[in-house]
Design brief:
The protein has one domain. The chain has 171 residues and is an all-alpha fold. Strands 1-2 form a two-stranded antiparallel sheet. The termini are far apart. Helices cover 84% and strands 2% of the residues. The model has no long low-confidence stretch (mean pLDDT 83).
């Protein structure tokens, strides 16, 4: 069998013919093909079906859009609430820091006041207790020195310590 006629190939014609035959067989021999033929021959019904499909798609799109808007609204509300709580927490933290500063200042002031009182108490003790004791000691040493001088004993001799009581009385 010779597949060439006048220098051209027969195969493209065979393929095109097979495709056309398959399409015609599909349109006339199957249920799906009958539906497609009916849609082509009755375009007004196809328009109604397309319009119905468009309506269904619009309703579904509206439902999805509404759900997205609700979600976005809730997300925005949550973000606003989070921001409000964050601001309140910051203000509370600042307030607590100010209270802590004031309390620290009060404690520092009380410590300084207590130290000042202790200093005044030490000065008072020094003036009212220690100064008289030092004066008494000086008077005692002066009296002792006078008595030693009176009885002829000087503090510089060996073996002399404080004047015994009997020597002080002149015994």
């Amino acid at each position: 069998m010779n597949t060439k006629t006048n220098g051209s190939s027969v195969w493209p014609y065979v393929i095109v013919g097979s495709a056309i035959g398959g399409a015609v067989g599909f349109l006339f021999m199957t249920e799906s093909g009958r539906k497609i033929r009916h849609a082509i021959t009755h375009p007004d019904e196809l328009t109604d079906e397309i319009e119905g499909a468009r309506s269904v798609i619009e309703r579904k799109a509206q439902v999805v859009t509404d759900q997205i808007h609700k979600f976005i609204g809730k997300a925005k509300q949550s973000m606003d609430e989070g921001e409000r709580v964050y601001r309140e927490a910051g203000e509370e933290l600042k307030l607590r820091a100010r209270r802590l500063d004031r309390r620290n200042d009060e404690i520092t002031s009380q410590v300084h006041h207590t130290v000042e009182k202790m200093n005044q108490t030490a000065v008072t003790i020094e003036h009212s207790v220690l100064d008289p004791l030092v004066e008494l000691g000086a008077i005692y040493r002066g009296v002792e020195h006078g008595i030693r001088s009176l009885f002829g004993r000087s503090k510089g001799r060996l073996g002399t310590g404080p004047i015994p009581v009997r020597d002080r009385m002149g015994f």
